[in-house]
Protein backbone atom coordinates (compact mmCIF):
# COMPACT_ATOMS: atom_id res chain seq x y z
CA UNK A 1 0.00 0.00 0.00
CA UNK A 2 1.20 3.47 -0.94
CA UNK A 3 -0.35 6.79 0.06
CA UNK A 4 0.66 9.78 -2.07
CA UNK A 5 0.83 13.37 -0.85
CA UNK A 6 -2.79 13.97 -1.90
CA UNK A 7 -4.14 11.03 0.08
CA UNK A 8 -4.68 8.76 -2.93
CA UNK A 9 -3.98 5.06 -2.45
CA UNK A 10 -2.08 2.54 -4.56
CA UNK A 11 -3.09 -0.90 -3.31
CA UNK A 12 -1.26 -4.15 -3.98
CA UNK A 13 -4.30 -6.40 -4.46
CA UNK A 14 -2.38 -9.66 -4.16
CA UNK A 15 -5.18 -12.18 -4.64
CA UNK A 16 -6.30 -10.43 -7.82
CA UNK A 17 -2.77 -10.02 -9.25
CA UNK A 18 -2.97 -6.27 -9.71
CA UNK A 19 -2.25 -2.82 -8.32
CA UNK A 20 -5.32 -0.64 -7.87
CA UNK A 21 -5.37 3.15 -7.72
CA UNK A 22 -8.03 4.56 -5.39
CA UNK A 23 -8.43 8.36 -5.44
CA UNK A 24 -9.20 10.08 -2.16
CA UNK A 25 -12.90 9.80 -1.21
CA UNK A 26 -13.58 7.44 -4.14
CA UNK A 27 -15.64 4.28 -3.70
CA UNK A 28 -14.17 2.45 -6.68
CA UNK A 29 -10.60 2.13 -7.88
CA UNK A 30 -8.99 1.35 -11.21
CA UNK A 31 -6.22 -1.04 -12.23
CA UNK A 32 -2.87 0.62 -12.95
CA UNK A 33 -0.68 -2.51 -13.08
CA UNK A 34 -1.56 -6.13 -13.74
CA UNK A 35 -4.54 -7.64 -15.46
CA UNK A 36 -6.31 -9.65 -12.74
CA UNK A 37 -5.10 -12.90 -14.28
CA UNK A 38 -2.14 -15.09 -13.51
CA UNK A 39 0.34 -14.61 -16.28
CA UNK A 40 3.40 -12.48 -16.77
CA UNK A 41 2.42 -10.65 -13.57
CA UNK A 42 1.69 -13.54 -11.25
CA UNK A 43 1.05 -12.26 -7.75
CA UNK A 44 1.80 -8.88 -6.27
CA UNK A 45 3.04 -8.41 -2.75
CA UNK A 46 4.06 -4.79 -2.23
CA UNK A 47 4.12 -1.43 -3.97
CA UNK A 48 5.81 1.87 -3.30
CA UNK A 49 6.98 4.97 -5.12
CA UNK A 50 10.65 5.04 -5.94
CA UNK A 51 13.04 7.37 -7.68
CA UNK A 52 11.99 9.33 -10.79
CA UNK A 53 8.24 8.62 -10.67
CA UNK A 54 8.45 4.84 -10.84
CA UNK A 55 6.03 2.49 -9.10
CA UNK A 56 7.98 -0.50 -7.78
CA UNK A 57 6.03 -3.74 -7.37
CA UNK A 58 7.05 -7.08 -5.91
CA UNK A 59 5.92 -9.81 -8.33
CA UNK A 60 5.86 -12.49 -5.67
CA UNK A 61 5.25 -15.59 -7.77
CA UNK A 62 7.91 -14.70 -10.32
CA UNK A 63 10.54 -13.76 -7.71
CA UNK A 64 11.30 -10.34 -9.12
CA UNK A 65 10.76 -6.61 -8.59
CA UNK A 66 9.16 -4.67 -11.43
CA UNK A 67 9.22 -0.94 -12.15
CA UNK A 68 6.22 0.74 -13.78
CA UNK A 69 5.79 4.35 -14.85
CA UNK A 70 3.84 5.97 -12.04
CA UNK A 71 0.47 6.54 -13.65
CA UNK A 72 -3.15 6.72 -12.61
CA UNK A 73 -4.29 5.67 -16.08
CA UNK A 74 -5.89 2.27 -16.38
CA UNK A 75 -3.97 -0.24 -18.45
CA UNK A 76 -0.34 0.66 -17.76
CA UNK A 77 2.33 -1.17 -19.82
CA UNK A 78 4.21 -4.19 -18.55
CA UNK A 79 6.86 -3.42 -16.00
CA UNK A 80 10.64 -3.60 -16.28
CA UNK A 81 12.51 -6.08 -14.09
CA UNK A 82 15.02 -4.36 -11.81
CA UNK A 83 15.76 -7.17 -9.31
CA UNK A 84 15.44 -10.93 -9.63
CA UNK A 85 13.93 -12.89 -12.53
CA UNK A 86 16.59 -15.58 -12.06
CA UNK A 87 14.31 -17.99 -10.24
CA UNK A 88 13.90 -18.53 -6.55
CA UNK A 89 17.12 -18.78 -4.55
CA UNK A 90 19.56 -17.16 -2.18
CA UNK A 91 22.21 -15.84 -4.58
CA UNK A 92 22.58 -12.07 -4.61
CA UNK A 93 20.71 -11.80 -7.92
CA UNK A 94 17.83 -13.93 -6.60
CA UNK A 95 15.03 -13.24 -4.13
CA UNK A 96 12.51 -15.38 -2.30
CA UNK A 97 9.24 -13.78 -1.17
CA UNK A 98 9.70 -10.02 -0.97
CA UNK A 99 6.56 -8.82 0.80
CA UNK A 100 7.78 -5.37 1.85
CA UNK A 101 9.99 -2.65 0.40
CA UNK A 102 11.12 0.82 1.44
CA UNK A 103 12.84 3.77 -0.22
CA UNK A 104 15.45 6.09 1.22
CA UNK A 105 14.94 8.95 -1.22
CA UNK A 106 17.56 11.17 0.39
CA UNK A 107 20.31 8.60 -0.25
CA UNK A 108 18.65 7.01 -3.32
CA UNK A 109 18.59 3.54 -1.78
CA UNK A 110 15.89 0.91 -2.26
CA UNK A 111 15.53 -1.74 0.47
CA UNK A 112 13.92 -5.16 -0.03
CA UNK A 113 12.86 -7.48 2.78
CA UNK A 114 13.86 -10.90 1.42
CA UNK A 115 11.62 -12.94 3.73
CA UNK A 116 12.64 -16.56 3.22
CA UNK A 117 16.31 -15.69 2.79
CA UNK A 118 16.37 -13.99 6.21
CA UNK A 119 18.02 -10.84 4.92
CA UNK A 120 17.47 -7.28 3.75
CA UNK A 121 18.88 -6.30 0.36
CA UNK A 122 19.83 -2.79 -0.72
CA UNK A 123 19.69 -1.49 -4.30
CA UNK A 124 21.57 1.71 -5.12
CA UNK A 125 19.24 3.57 -7.47
CA UNK A 126 22.02 5.66 -8.98
CA UNK A 127 24.13 2.78 -10.30
CA UNK A 128 21.77 -0.23 -9.86
CA UNK A 129 24.22 -2.15 -7.68
CA UNK A 130 22.62 -4.65 -5.31
CA UNK A 131 24.16 -5.71 -2.01
CA UNK A 132 23.33 -7.31 1.31
CA UNK A 133 22.28 -4.67 3.86
CA UNK A 134 21.54 -6.65 7.04
CA UNK A 135 20.97 -10.26 8.03
CA UNK A 136 23.18 -13.26 7.40
CA UNK A 137 20.93 -15.30 5.12
CA UNK A 138 20.52 -17.87 7.89
CA UNK A 139 17.75 -17.61 10.46
CA UNK A 140 18.86 -16.66 13.95
CA UNK A 141 18.07 -14.50 16.94
CA UNK A 142 21.31 -12.68 17.70
CA UNK A 143 21.83 -9.01 16.85
CA UNK A 144 23.14 -9.64 13.33
CA UNK A 145 20.55 -12.27 12.38
CA UNK A 146 16.91 -12.22 11.34
CA UNK A 147 14.20 -14.87 11.29
CA UNK A 148 11.69 -14.29 8.50
CA UNK A 149 11.83 -10.47 8.29
CA UNK A 150 8.74 -8.71 6.98
CA UNK A 151 8.01 -4.99 7.17
CA UNK A 152 10.78 -2.41 6.84
CA UNK A 153 10.90 1.36 7.00
CA UNK A 154 13.60 4.02 6.79
CA UNK A 155 14.22 7.04 8.96
CA UNK A 156 15.42 9.26 6.13
CA UNK A 157 16.86 11.83 8.55
CA UNK A 158 19.39 9.37 9.97
CA UNK A 159 19.32 6.56 7.41
CA UNK A 160 18.41 4.06 10.14
CA UNK A 161 16.56 0.93 9.00
CA UNK A 162 13.73 -0.59 11.07
CA UNK A 163 12.83 -4.26 10.49
CA UNK A 164 9.96 -6.37 11.82
CA UNK A 165 11.76 -9.60 12.65
CA UNK A 166 8.58 -11.65 12.66
CA UNK A 167 9.61 -15.04 14.07
CA UNK A 168 11.77 -13.40 16.71
CA UNK A 169 8.73 -11.30 17.68
CA UNK A 170 10.70 -8.08 17.72
CA UNK A 171 11.47 -4.87 15.85
CA UNK A 172 15.15 -4.27 15.10
CA UNK A 173 16.80 -0.93 14.37
CA UNK A 174 19.95 -0.87 12.25
CA UNK A 175 21.86 2.40 12.13
CA UNK A 176 23.14 3.53 8.74
CA UNK A 177 25.79 1.12 7.38
CA UNK A 178 25.64 -1.03 10.53
CA UNK A 179 24.87 -4.76 10.56
CA UNK A 180 24.32 -4.80 14.33
CA UNK A 181 20.64 -4.64 15.24
CA UNK A 182 19.19 -2.90 18.30
CA UNK A 183 15.90 -4.26 19.63
CA UNK A 184 13.45 -1.35 19.99
CA UNK A 185 10.26 -3.37 20.61
CA UNK A 186 9.45 -6.90 21.73
CA UNK A 187 12.14 -9.52 21.59
CA UNK A 188 11.57 -11.53 24.75
CA UNK A 189 9.05 -14.05 23.43
CA UNK A 190 5.65 -13.93 21.78
CA UNK A 191 2.58 -13.13 23.83
CA UNK A 192 -0.36 -10.79 24.35
CA UNK A 193 1.03 -8.47 27.02
CA UNK A 194 1.95 -4.93 26.04
CA UNK A 195 5.66 -5.76 26.25
CA UNK A 196 5.19 -8.70 23.85
CA UNK A 197 4.68 -8.96 20.11
CA UNK A 198 3.22 -11.87 18.17
CA UNK A 199 4.42 -12.19 14.57
CA UNK A 200 4.77 -8.45 13.84
CA UNK A 201 4.50 -7.71 10.14
CA UNK A 202 4.84 -3.97 9.52
CA UNK A 203 6.51 -0.95 11.09
CA UNK A 204 6.37 2.82 10.74
CA UNK A 205 8.03 5.68 12.60
CA UNK A 206 7.03 9.25 13.34
CA UNK A 207 9.27 12.37 13.33
CA UNK A 208 9.98 11.87 17.03
CA UNK A 209 11.34 8.35 16.55
CA UNK A 210 8.33 6.58 18.04
CA UNK A 211 7.62 3.20 16.48
CA UNK A 212 4.24 1.92 15.24
CA UNK A 213 3.83 -1.81 14.78
CA UNK A 214 1.27 -4.04 13.07
CA UNK A 215 1.19 -6.76 15.73
CA UNK A 216 -0.49 -9.23 13.40
CA UNK A 217 -0.86 -12.24 15.67
CA UNK A 218 -2.48 -10.06 18.32
CA UNK A 219 -4.80 -8.24 15.88
CA UNK A 220 -3.72 -4.78 16.99
CA UNK A 221 -1.55 -1.77 16.22
CA UNK A 222 0.91 -0.67 18.90
CA UNK A 223 2.69 2.60 19.47
CA UNK A 224 6.08 2.10 21.12
CA UNK A 225 7.62 5.31 22.43
CA UNK A 226 11.37 5.91 22.27
CA UNK A 227 13.14 3.94 25.03
CA UNK A 228 9.84 2.50 26.29
CA UNK A 229 9.67 -1.04 27.64
CA UNK A 230 6.16 -1.70 26.38
CA UNK A 231 3.73 -0.42 23.79
CA UNK A 232 0.19 0.89 23.92
CA UNK A 233 -2.72 -0.11 21.71
CA UNK A 234 -3.80 2.60 19.28
CA UNK A 235 -5.97 0.50 16.94
CA UNK A 236 -7.68 -2.85 17.28
CA UNK A 237 -8.75 -4.55 20.48
CA UNK A 238 -6.41 -7.53 20.57
CA UNK A 239 -9.28 -9.83 19.56
CA UNK A 240 -9.95 -10.66 15.91
CA UNK A 241 -13.18 -9.18 14.59
CA UNK A 242 -14.85 -7.20 11.83
CA UNK A 243 -16.34 -4.22 13.67
CA UNK A 244 -14.90 -0.75 13.06
CA UNK A 245 -12.81 -0.99 16.24
CA UNK A 246 -11.42 -4.45 15.47
CA UNK A 247 -8.84 -5.93 13.14
CA UNK A 248 -8.17 -9.44 11.90
CA UNK A 249 -4.49 -10.04 11.17
CA UNK A 250 -3.36 -6.53 10.19
CA UNK A 251 -0.34 -6.77 7.91
CA UNK A 252 0.62 -3.25 6.87
CA UNK A 253 0.32 0.28 8.19
CA UNK A 254 1.02 3.70 6.72
CA UNK A 255 0.50 7.30 7.78
CA UNK A 256 -0.66 10.07 5.46
CA UNK A 257 0.61 13.64 5.73
CA UNK A 258 -2.19 14.43 8.21
CA UNK A 259 -1.07 11.55 10.46
CA UNK A 260 -4.15 9.47 9.72
CA UNK A 261 -3.32 5.80 10.12
CA UNK A 262 -4.16 3.37 7.28
CA UNK A 263 -4.14 -0.35 8.08
CA UNK A 264 -4.32 -3.30 5.69
CA UNK A 265 -6.75 -5.56 7.58
CA UNK A 266 -5.88 -8.74 5.72
CA UNK A 267 -8.39 -11.32 6.88
CA UNK A 268 -11.23 -8.80 6.59
CA UNK A 269 -10.15 -7.91 3.01
CA UNK A 270 -10.27 -4.19 3.70
CA UNK A 271 -8.20 -1.10 4.43
CA UNK A 272 -9.15 0.81 7.57
CA UNK A 273 -8.37 4.44 8.31
CA UNK A 274 -7.98 5.53 11.92
CA UNK A 275 -7.98 9.11 13.16
CA UNK A 276 -5.69 8.73 16.14
CA UNK A 277 -7.05 11.88 17.76
CA UNK A 278 -10.40 10.15 18.22
CA UNK A 279 -9.14 6.54 18.25
CA UNK A 280 -11.73 5.46 15.70
CA UNK A 281 -11.97 4.79 12.00
Task: Write up what this structure looks like.
With 281 residues, the protein is an all-beta fold. It folds into two domains: 1-85, Thrombin, subunit H (Beta Barrel); 87-280, Neuraminidase, CATH 2.120.10. The protein has no helices and 23 strands. The chain has strands at residues 2-3, 9-13, 18-22, 30-34, 44-49, 54-59, 64-69, 80-84, 98-104, 109-114, 119-124, 130-134, 149-155, 160-165, 170-174, 182-186, 200-205, 211-215, 220-224, 232-236, 250-255, 261-265, 270-274. The strands form six sheets. The protein has a four-stranded antiparallel beta sheet with strand order 1-2-3-4, with no helix packed on it. Strands 5-6-7-8 form a four-stranded antiparallel beta sheet, with no helix packed on it. Strands 9-10-11-12 form a four-stranded antiparallel beta sheet, with no helix packed on it. The radius of gyration is 18 Å and the shape is globular. The relative contact order is 0.09. InterPro entries: 6-blade_b-propeller_TolB-like, NHL_repeat. Keywords: Glycoprotein, Repeat, Signal. Pfam families: NHL (PF01436). NHL repeats lie at residues 137-177, 188-227.
Helices and strands in order:
Elements: E1 2-3, E2 9-13, E3 18-22, E4 30-34, E5 44-49, E6 54-59, E7 64-69, E8 80-84, E9 98-104, E10 109-114, E11 119-124, E12 130-134, E13 149-155, E14 160-165, E15 170-174, E16 182-186, E17 200-205, E18 211-215, E19 220-224, E20 232-236, E21 250-255, E22 261-265, E23 270-274
Antiparallel strand pairs: 1-2, 2-3, 3-4, 5-6, 6-7, 7-8, 9-10, 10-11, 11-12, 13-14, 14-15, 15-16, 17-18, 18-19, 19-20, 21-22, 22-23
